[in-house]
Amino acid sequence: MILPERRDIRLPFPELLEWLEHPMFGFRPFGQVIRVEDYVADGKYVLRAELPGMDPEAEFEVIVDGGVLHIRAEKTQEDKEPRRSEFAYGALYRSVTLPTGAKTEEITATYRNGVLEVVVPLAEPKKVEGKRIAVTH
């Protein structure tokens, strides 16, 4: 039987900031939220983030700290005055709690066609031998 491992106790509610940053709630302490999608496949956690038209060497950074992946970006507006602009400019930020077993020292990131893809290898889940407890009544 495989039981889920308990998350790091230092992060009692690791998804709370992610929940509050959701566009529906409007709480964005670090600017606009970067839109992401993520999934787990083939022993890897993959996060894809939309960062169109940006220079990865100058305009954004990816940091992992304490089991949390942080993506920060700064999109500057061009000097010309647009007739209409619906583009988001300024600070962009997103933090995502990595799954248990993330091998943070092996994280890789690539940027293609306006999408940042971060790949995090995952350790094999630990098999925990449980002991059946008899319930009396």
Q: Any chance you could write out the topology, listing elements then pairs?
A:
Blueprint: H1 16-21, E1 32-33, E2 36-41, E3 44-50, E4 60-65, E5 68-75, E6 90-97, E7 108-112, E8 115-121
Parallel strand pairs: 1-6
Antiparallel strand pairs: 2-3, 3-8, 4-5, 5-6, 7-8
Main sheet specs: 4 strands, mixed
CATH fold title of the domain at 16-74 and 87-121: Immunoglobulin-like
Q: What does the radius of gyration come to?
A: 19 Å
> Average pLDDT value?
82
Structural category: mainly beta
CATH architecture of the domain at 16-74 and 87-121, by name, is Sandwich
The count of DSSP E runs of length 2 or more, i.e. the number of strands, is 8
Query: In percent, how helical is the residue content?
Result: under 10%
CATH C-level name of the domain at 16-74 and 87-121: Mainly Beta
End-to-end separation in angstroms reads 26 Å
Give the overall silhouette: elongated
* Percent in strands: 35-45%
Which segments are poorly predicted (pLDDT under 50) over 5 or more consecutive residues?
1-10
Protein architecture, described:
The protein is 4% helix and 36% strand. It is mainly beta. It has a domain at 16-74 and 87-121: Sandwich (Immunoglobulin-like), CATH 2.60.40. The strands form 2 sheets. It has a 4-stranded mixed beta sheet.
